[in-house]
Write a structure and sequence with these properties.
CATH architecture: Alpha-Beta Complex
CATH class: Alpha Beta
Structural class: alpha/beta
Helix content: 40-55%
Number of strands: 6
Strand content: 5-15%
Order of helices and strands: HEEHEHEHHEHEHHHHHHH
Radius of gyration: 19 Å
Shape: globular
Largest sheet: 6 strands, mixed
CATH topology: Protein-Tyrosine Phosphatase, Chain A
Number of helices: 13
């Protein structure tokens, strides 16, 4: 095999491997869902799909070989009117299953000792009452807030780690969200530094010019909100994050064993992050379904914990969430 072919093969294999963004967050391509050894070894229990149509994410979720897991979908193009009755019925079942688990997880987290000392809402950017669904069509700054709030909720649950995935693990839509998470972890860094960090972890991500990063809808506004909240409202909260970033920046990129995956699931196209005409548009992080579609209420409010009930947090978890915790 020629040197050129060896390089091409190595490049393709690198694209198929996931990377670790921070202590609890991994990211990579769609085929990572088939890598049972990786998912099990790294205790992945929470999944966030980015830019993958909900109906496809639903099908891929059926092939995840884990006993217990939760998946949330970020799909701003989701439109229920496009689907047949049969497909919509399957989507509603998928939405209801994971949404109920998310609602129960929030109940569990809100009654934890950590949130007894500092109410859950203070950890989030958006109202906790918005997180009653596993499908989000938010755009602009609301998308970044929603994405990072979900990661915060999963971290506070302490039931497992998180995998953020897109079709190929390299597209701008995913990269921008990863940048937003690094900005939240360490608000004192700038957008370009955050991108350089992600690029260092996964050199195969699409190259982005500095101007393109700043023009991404809502990212700069989100960074300003992060700096206001993390540096002003909660001084000193970034110390641990800064150390975390420094530690990961000095490490070599993680090398993981991977299972065989079908090439058909991997796309190496370069899809624009957003159209200029949509830059000013922002939609709220809300469920695309009505209350009659699901068995939960869209106006669910998480009760604030009191000290006497904090120790009983786990009793509110469903058997599914209990098993997730016990398997750790």
């Amino acid at each position: 095999m020629s040197h050129h072919n060896n390089y091409a093969l190595a490049h393709t294999l690198n694209q198929m491997k996931p990377q670790q963004l921070s202590n609890n967050v991994f990211f990579g391509p769609l085929n990572t869902l088939s890598q049972y050894d990786f998912l099990s070894k790294n205790d992945i229990k929470f999944f966030i799909s980015v830019g993958i149509p909900v109906e496809r994410a639903m099908e891929y979720a059926r092939n995840i070989q884990l006993d217990q897991f939760m998946i949330c979908c970020l799909d701003k193009e989701f439109d229920r009117t496009r689907f047949s009755d049969d497909t919509m019925s399957n989507i509603l079942e998928f939405n209801n299953k994971h949404s109920v688990d998310l609602k129960t997880l929030i109940q569990h987290v809100s009654l934890s000792e950590e949130c007894a000392a500092q109410p859950l809402q203070s950890h989030l950017y958006r109202s906790v009452s918005e997180y009653t669904t596993n499908i989000y069509t938010a755009d602009g700054v609301h998308k970044f807030e929603c994405f990072n709030d979900l990661i915060t909720l999963f971290k506070l649950a302490k039931m497992g780690n998180i995998l953020v995935f897109s079709s190929n693990g390299n597209d701008e839509n995913l990269v921008i969200l990863l940048i937003s998470h690094m900005l939240k972890q360490n608000p004192s860094i700038n957008v370009v530094d955050a991108f350089s960090y992600v690029k260092n972890l996964r050199p195969t991500v699409n190259n982005m010019k500095e101007d393109n990063i700043y023009w991404c809808s809502g990212l700069v506004a989100y960074h300003e909100r992060v700096k206001s909240k993390e540096l002003t409202w909660r001084p000193g909260s970034t110390n641990g994050s800064s150390t975390e970033i420094t530690n990961f920046a000095t490490k070599r990129r993680e090398q993981f064993e991977e299972d065989e995956a079908e090439d058909g699931d991997i796309s190496f196209g370069n899809k624009p992050y957003s159209d200029a005409a949509n830059d000013a548009m922002e939609s709220i992080a809300s469920t695309p379904f009505s209350e009659s579609d699901c068995s939960y209420s869209s106006d669910f409010q998480t009760p604030e914990p009191d000290n006497s009930s904090a120790y009983n947090a786990r009793q509110y978890a469903t058997p599914r969430l209990k098993r997730m915790a016990l398997n750790k």
